[in-house]
Here is the input.
Amino acid sequence: MNEGATTKRGKAKREALVQAAAELFWTRGYEASSLADIASAARVPLGNVYYYFKTKSDLAGAVADLFVQQTETLIEEVRAETPEPRQRLKLLISRLQSGQQGRVQFGCPIYSAARDYRRAAPDQGARAAESFSLLTGFIATELGRTGQRPSIALSRARAVVADWQGSIALAHALGEPPVLAECFSRMERTLGLPPA
Here is the structure.
């Protein structure tokens, strides 16, 4: 067997396990998702799971890393599209808006991870929460580039991330998508962005 092919298959299995865990931890909850459930969803034999992850908390760490990587990629993509800070912020809000359907149904996967991991895997919970710090930092930096004082930029960045997260929680609790849809225009107003 070709060593490169074996490595590629191993990487694919590991990625499948992380994706399955992310989905199940989000839709079922961390405590309610067993390694057997994750292995089955990833179509990986249960015995093979332990080759990649010794414990469920190790898998939670990989999911937290995935969320951070996805957030970093989102920010990099927005930065690559335009150098203009207000356009970057509008693009970011547009990207956040595109993922709203699943969030109405299950809540925010990042928040769920940050909350659910805290008891059993606190380091992994803190790692998942870094996604929010990255978003807040990006927004504050772009607001600063428009001439806002750092303290005001940071306060507004926190306000829009809090509005987004609160709107996800309320839309999820009530089962009402408009609650989340409405927050995106409020976010733009809070950031002082021109209307579309």
